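Late entry, written up from scratch paper. The run itself happened at the end of the previous shift, but nothing got recorded in the book at the time, so transcribing now.
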Amino acid sequence: VLLDVHMPDGGGLAVLEAIAPELPEIRFLALSVSDAAEDVIALIRAGARGYVTKTISADDLADAITRVADGDVVFSPRLAGFVLDAFRDSPVAPAVDPNFDQLTPREREVMRLLARGYAYKEIAAELFISIKTVETHASNVLRKLQLSSRHQLTRWAADRRML
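Output as recorded:
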């Protein structure tokens, strides 16, 4: 479900808080003109699987909707930091994972960007590699870490304070 954050009568947050507990299988993506940290954090805590600003292109929005529907977590790149900062002070100590040592330096770079919510296209541009190469690295990362989705990767990386 694509939610507009700022609407009358509580907006997307009110909708999310009303529906998410009753229908946990539904995934929500927040769309907003706001990039305020408090808006982002409130929607994520309420159960949204992503948050993008209305400056996003139509193609990237379609990709974000598909990715959230597939179980991934999606943020406009600048917003991912807000979420990470909000949960960074967790009392849980970082866990050590021997599988992390199997990743190449490039796979580690791709892993961090994936976990921060970057799209393949954005990772390719950031690292000056092709989208196909990003896809290959992403597949290798998930396989080596024994994870099955970008959502699991984000949680795995956040638990280990690798973001």
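The chain is about 55% helix and 10% strand.
(Scratch paper discarded after transcription.)
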